[in-house]
């Protein structure tokens, strides 16, 4: 039952009934349309968080609404004893976008997609894994074992597996850590939760060469970068000579519905055998219908091009402000980090919210932007107009919050 009367009441009810796993208080949101969100008091926001890269088409996109409505009215779910058409069609479509033969395992989240990759790694018969410092792969125990953020790991040690974390972007460190016993190397093509960190040119290619020479699988976590976010269907496709063994997807793929995928190629696609893995909702027809609607819309509306265009416009516009709090802008496509000259990102986030603009602060000195892929000139202009005032106000008190 939804019985919202305002921000205060919804926040109080949230505090009573839900576990506080991210920090308090959170902004109560009751409605979304396109790039706009409304809180329970009726205040309007321009959404540059986009569900942390989930809302690829913004909120309530008519094509997604139509696809989901149609699917749930005809077949909402069947058990894994049966096969429905939407997961088959979505897997075929994904493989077509990858341009390679492979196999897809559907699940419900990014963490789960990485659990699938973890199991595929273990099925090689090797146990050692290499991941990156600052990397984020999810909160379930296997995904957390791969995550390179100590504060998130510590309460849960010992974590499964035998994982070595190496500095991100350092090919020499990677080469030194990978041995003939290494099952897999997992890398985000751009580190999202760490603040839109882009590795040096040639890093992914080096990772491919290193893993190929020792027989380790190269797993690319494209949960945040995939499905058009960076202006390519998958970010690795922007890097010459990089063909991963496994790619994990989630977030934007479901257009707002819970949908993850572990996509494997070559020998990695043959390792998972009957009895090894599974989940009730994996391949749910409604989630997969949403996924197909997202992919179709990205293609039909030329959104990869739009991402590149609006990304440039944002980067140039932000750096062109010459504001003293802005150091530089990094990231790829519409996964951007404004690196500040001072650790005031939580304050900037709060000031932005007060001004009706939603951004996110994944690090003390990084303001992250992940607007919908179909964002237009007007919204980018509105953002750029508001930003100087928001940065000025950012020095004022405010408590930041993070999210995934
Ligand atoms: N991998 C990456 C790169 C992510 O950014 C995230 C979420 N921020 C995850 C995995 C985990 O996804 P989920 O929250 O859907 O489990």
Question: Outline of this structure?
Answer:
One of its GO terms (biological process) is L-arginine biosynthetic process. With 404 residues, this protein is an alpha/beta fold.
Overview of the molecule:
The protein has 404 residues and is of the alpha/beta class. The protein contains 13 helices and 15 strands. It has helices at 7-17, 50-53, 62-74, 85-98, 110-122, 141-146, 150-153, 171-177, 203-214, 285-300, 303-320, 345-354, 377-394, and strands at 29-33, 36-39, 44-47, 103-107, 128-132, 162-166, 182-187, 217-221, 246-249, 260-264, 326-332, 335-340, 357-358, 360-363, 366-369. A hairpin with a 2-residue loop joins strand 11 (326-332) and strand 12. Helix 4 (85-98) runs parallel beside helix 10. The protein is globular and about 55 Å long. Bound molecules: 4'-deoxy-4'-aminopyridoxal-5'-phosphate. This is Acetylornithine aminotransferase. The modification N6-(pyridoxal phosphate)lysine is found at residue 251. Its cofactor is pyridoxal 5'-phosphate.
Summarize the helices and strands and which ones pair or pack.
Blueprint: H1 7-17, E1 29-33, E2 36-39, E3 44-47, H2 50-53, H3 62-74, H4 85-98, E4 103-107, H5 110-122, E5 128-132, H6 141-146, H7 150-153, E6 162-166, H8 171-177, E7 182-187, H9 203-214, E8 217-221, E9 246-249, E10 260-264, H10 285-300, H11 303-320, E11 326-332, E12 335-340, H12 345-354, E13 357-358, E14 360-363, E15 366-369, H13 377-394
The protein binds 4'-deoxy-4'-aminopyridoxal-5'-phosphate (PMP).
């Amino acid at each position: 039952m939804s019985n919202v009367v305002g921000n205060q009441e919804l926040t109080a009810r949230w505090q009573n009934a839900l576990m506080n796993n991210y920090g308090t208080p959170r902004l109560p949101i009751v409605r979304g349309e396109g790039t706009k969100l409304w809180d329970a008091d009726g205040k309007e926001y321009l959404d540059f968080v986009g569900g942390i890269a989930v809302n690829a088409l913004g909120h309530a996109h008519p094509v997604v609404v139509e696809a989901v409505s149609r699917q749930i009215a005809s077949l909402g779910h069947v058990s894994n004893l049966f096969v429905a058409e939407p997961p088959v069609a979505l897997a075929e479509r994904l493989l077509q976008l990858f341009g390679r033969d492979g196999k897809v395992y559907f699940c419900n989240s990014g963490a789960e997609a990485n659990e699938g990759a973890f199991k595929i790694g273990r099925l090689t018969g090797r146990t050692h894994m290499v991941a990156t410092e600052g990397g984020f792969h999810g909160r379930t125990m296997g995904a957390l074992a791969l995550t390179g953020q100590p504060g998130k790991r510590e309460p849960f040690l010992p974590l499964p597996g035998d994982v070595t974390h190496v500095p991100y972007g350092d090919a020499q460190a990677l080469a030194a850590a990978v041995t003939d016993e290494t099952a897999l190397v997992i890398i985000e093509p751009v580190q999202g939760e760490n603040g839109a960190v882009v590795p040096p040119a040639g890093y992914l290619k080096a990772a491919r060469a290193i893993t190929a020479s020792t027989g380790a699988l190269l797993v690319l976590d494209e949960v945040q970068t995939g499905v058009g976010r960076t202006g390519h269907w998958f970010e690795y496709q922007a890097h010459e000579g990089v063909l991963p063994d496994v790619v994990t997807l989630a977030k934007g793929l479901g257009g707002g519905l819970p949908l993850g995928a572990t996509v494997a190629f070559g020998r990695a696609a043959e390792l998972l055998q009957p009895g090894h893995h599974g989940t009730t909702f994996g391949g749910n027809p409604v989630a997969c219908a949403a996924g197909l609607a997202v992919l179709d819309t990205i293609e039909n509306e030329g959104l990869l091009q739009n991402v590149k265009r609006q990304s440039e416009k944002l980067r140039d516009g932000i750096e062109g402000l010459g504001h003293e709090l802005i150091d530089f802008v990094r990231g790829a496509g519409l996964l951007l980090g404004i690196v500040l000259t001072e650790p005031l990102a939580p304050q900037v986030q709060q000031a932005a919210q007060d001004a009706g603009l939603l951004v996110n602060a994944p690090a003390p000195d990084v303001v992250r932007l992940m607007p919908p892929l179909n964002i237009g000139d007007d919204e980018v202009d509105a953002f750029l107009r508001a930003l100087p005032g928001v940065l000025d106000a950012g020095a004022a008190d405010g408590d930041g919050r993070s999210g995934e």
